[in-house]
Amino acid sequence: MTRKLLILALTLALCAPLFGQLKTYDYTNMTPEDIAQLKADRHAFYAAKSEGIQDAIRNNMLLEATKVDGNQADFDVRYYGLHLSLNFTTSQISGYVDYKIKSTVPNLSAVDLNLIDQLSVDSIFVNGTPAFFSHAADIIAITLPGSFSTGQEFNMTLYYHGSPAYINQQGMAFGSVWGSQMCFTNCEPYGTRNWLPCKDYPLDKPDSVDVWIEYPSTMKCMSAGAIISDVSIGGGRNLVHFKHNYPIATYLLAITCSNFTTSTQTWTYDSYSMPVYSYTVPASPSAKTAFETHMRPVLTALSDRYGTYPYATEKAGNAHYGWGGAMEHQTCSFYNPGFYTDWVIAHETGHQWFGDM
Questions:
Q1: Which long-range contacts (CB under 8 A, 24 or more apart) does 2-9 make?
Q2: pLDDT tens, 295-308?
Q3: Residues 56-115: tens digit of each pLDDT
């Protein structure tokens, strides 16, 4: 058994009891047995999660200068506007990305972006002018039609298509999750390049993002930010628009799409009144109940302690995806359908303050 397979087996062994452990505790009246069990479950969860974090540190968190690829230290991506079409028949995607980019050097004449080679770049335009590019070794090397001085901004649009990748449980996957057809992403920390052309560097957060997703009308999609619209465009397809007006790391810009059972509640806190969404697969009604029961009290408890929920002008939510654990994607955490205890919901929601904001 290889080292990676061994780590995966140990992680699954540690997490398996948690996926089947659905007990909700009365924290005001806990028995010694309850306390002992809760401690054991939490220790197993954090041991498994820490193993993954240590792997990420060893594999990726090297010297600061090595974290960016190509000339990525020479520019700042200020905005992403993603227009994506999901094809569940072929497990492929197509679309384009609008960028606002600012030069951080006196004469910026090129831009290097991360994108896995198996996705194809069709064309690139800079301020409306076609740009020359090459795509190899998972880097798109773009020659700008002119140079830009320090602090100067420009617009760029990139068209692409193909089959996204899901490598070492990072990237975008199409598949069946608890009997439901699903497309989802899971990218911490450097997996966004497996489905989205981007500067895949966690410290370079765009100021805002827009996400438009075209998808089958029998399904529902979730991503970062407020839901601006979700309308039929004919031919059995819908188009949903999410808008997020906060800085966000690329790995926190996530997508999940399936035949979700959805519900919307309202959380009120001080002067805020915010929608709270639950997007769950039909085979896990208990998860829907858990999200609806615990999410709003968790938001209130954490806001009382750490300050108002950071994204109270947009939304909070919980949605299902196909990875084996849970992940604090910005404004909506994603969960395995069997993973929904009260303290896990509190843990992932807590990351909206510590980790996301």
A1: 4/168, 7/51, 7/55
A2: 999 999 999 999 99
A3: 666 655 444 456 899 999 999 999 999 999 999 999 999 999 999 999 999 999 999 999
Handedness of CA 292, 336, 138, 85 (dihedral sign): negative
Query: What Cα–Cα distance (Å) separates residue 37 from each residue in 152, 161, 277, 294?
Result: 57, 48, 30, 20
pTM reported for the whole predicted model: 0.85
Place of tokens 């084996």: 324
Using an 8 Å Cβ cutoff, are 280 and 300 in contact?
A: no
Nearest CA-CA partner of 345 in 45, 11, 32, 36: 45
Q: Which of 201, 297, 289, 307 is nearest to 250 (CA)?
A: 201
CA distance 318 to 280: 8
> Do residues 34 and 24 lie in contact, with contact meaning Cβ atoms separated by under 8 Å?
no
**Interatomic CA distance for residues 224 and 321, integer angstroms:** 14
Residues, the chain, total? 357
Q: Do 324 and 288 meet the contact criterion of CB atoms below 8 Å apart?
A: no
Nearest alpha carbon to residue 34 among 23, 46, 47, 20? 23
> What is the chain's Cα-based Rg?
21
Predicted confidence at residue 8, as pLDDT, reads 41
According to DSSP, the β-strands at 272-280 and 316-320 are: parallel
Angle between helices 32-60 and 342-350 (to 10 degrees): 40
Tell me if residue 148 falls in helix, strand or coil: strand
To which H or E segment does residue 274 belong? strand 272-280
